[in-house]
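Most newcomers find our protein records easier to grasp once they have seen one. A learned vocabulary of local backbone shapes supplies the integers on the structure line. Here is such a record, shown just as it appears in the course material:
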Amino acid sequence: MKFIRLREMNDWEGELWNFWLQLDGNEDELAKLESLLAEQRRLGYDLPYHLHLTFPVPEDEIDALVEVAEDYGGYYPRDMKVTGKFTCPDEIGEEGDALYKGGIFRYFK
């Protein structure tokens, strides 16, 4: 299985999180998310989210990252693995608010 990274830079908490999203079986929905993020940028929003669809990473490498992920005692460790079926929302809100503080989790079942 392959994974892609959704990075959230949360300035409010002073934390950076890498959500490693399951790519296999979710390609179309992740492309939809990429389009929604691109549209927000076209509207002039400086989003704290970066989706890296062009660099899939094998599951064993993600498992290793998650195993040694730094935990700053904040909301989340630096690297997290997110598996399951992804259903992209139709809207992500201004500035991607639907993704705020790990909101990506709610769209994976």
